[in-house]
Request: fold
Amino acid sequence: MNTAIQRAAIVFRHPTVTDAGRIWRLVRDSGRLDPNSSYCYLLLCRYYSGTCLVAEREGELVGFVTSFLSPQDPANVFVWQIAVSPTAQGQGIATSLLQRLMELPVYRHAKRVEATVSPTNISSRRLFEAFARRRGARLAISNDGFPAALFPEPGHEDEPLIQISF
Reply:
């Protein structure tokens, strides 16, 4: 095997508060995701670490996924954000993050995965569609997400709800 094309292994783990700034920068630099405050990512990394994952390669954060169990329905997983660094895209990292996320013990009783994805975020839509196909699950897209009118910033797109049922 040609060692020039070998890539260092990706390490998947739960985030810590020291990852929050790197997650925030990855979101900011993605150009696709709505950036939240850095404080929000600190909260996610401290209080929701068990339902989130980061992907690292040689100490560099190359991807992450944030999610949580719905307080109203503990069988429902909401995937808040998922992103991969431009330097690591096309390597299956987002797919692995989503698969590993659903293998977490906290999600063993999950019956659904939900996310909101704007119509122009084609890569995220394709990710969730492929995830549903691989699991033999039903994917539905509805207007039960968040309409553009609810967002205070001008120009925000609708965020239709994607629901994957197992």
